[in-house]
Amino acid sequence: MNDSEEGRGQQLGPLDEEHLITSGTRYSIKGFRFQPPYVLKRAAGHLCHGHGPFVLQVFCLTLYAVLLLAVLVKVSSIANSKGQEQAEKEKVNQEMTQLKPEINRLCRPCPWDWTLFQGNCYFFSKFQQNWHDSVTACREVGAQLVVIKSDDEQSFLQQTSKEKGYAWMGLSDLKHESVWHWVDGSHLLFSFMKYWNKGEPNNEGEEDCAEFRGNGWNDVPCTVEKYWICKKSAMSCTKK
Question: What does the DSSP 8-state code read for residue 202?
Fold first, then answer.
């Protein structure tokens, strides 16, 4: 560097330095010895605001673009996730609709170990107990010790009891001797009197409860242990 150039460099004042900054001249000016501290401070304060070097402005714009792209990707991901979730729900609903006929065919109107007959479910016990405990056992499962309502039902129960063993029915004259009532409070119909075995009921030894025995009914002491039969209405399996 010659003396004239050095002199020009030393004569630069604040206005010349400002001109260098605003005119886009590089901060490290080749050929001049000075780098005013306030130039660096001013440049740092104006990064990404249109006053910094072109490279830094490009960097800032690129950073903004990357952030914007990240936000768009996130929003798109959330939208796609919701769309997939909705699609999965629709798929499950469609499969359930297709399976409904099969489910209806699998519907059991009676619990396991119960027998369906003419719209009612019947449970034949596997062990024996007295009449009162049998009444309680049926109530605990939402049923009642069997009350006979028809001749067909009587035939069905009589045959089953012959195969499984003598069993209690929900009939007794505990409230009034020789006046037989079912556990639901109804009176024994005269038309059902024919089901008593010959010579029964004879009330020998406080025989106040009725059982299925052989081909008909028999009265026995309520304390004797026997099998029992519970009855309740069958569940509906109608299709919707």
Answer: -
pLDDT (tens digit per residue) in 46-94? 545 555 566 666 677 777 677 777 777 777 777 677 777 788 778 777 7
d(C-alpha 94, C-alpha 90), whole Å = 6
Instruction: List 116's β-bridge partners, or say none.
Output: 121
Residue ranges of domains in the chain: 3-45, 114-233
CA dihedral for 205, 206, 209, 215, sign (positive or negative): positive
Q: Taking CA 188 as the corner, what is the angle to CA 236 and CA 203, rounded to the nearest 5 degrees?
A: 130
The SS3 assignment for 143 reads: coil
- How big is the chain, counted in residues? 240
Quote the pTM value: 0.56
What is the pairing mode between strands 120-124 and 227-233?
A: antiparallel
| DSSP for 39-90, written as a single string | HHHHHHHTTTTTSS-HHHHHHHHHHHHHHHHHHHHHHHHHHHHHHHHHHHHH
Neighbour tally for 196: CB within 10 Å:
17
Residues 216, 196 contacting (CB under 8 angstroms): yes
Give residue-wise pLDDT tens across range 113-152.
999 999 999 999 999 999 999 999 999 999 999 999 999 9
**Token reading at 136:** 């309680």
Of 3.40.50.970, 1.10.1760.20, 1.20.1530.20, 3.10.100.10, which CATH number belongs to 114-233?
3.10.100.10
Backbone CA torsion sign across 181, 182, 185, 186:
negative
Residues of the chain with pLDDT > 70, as a percent, come to: 70
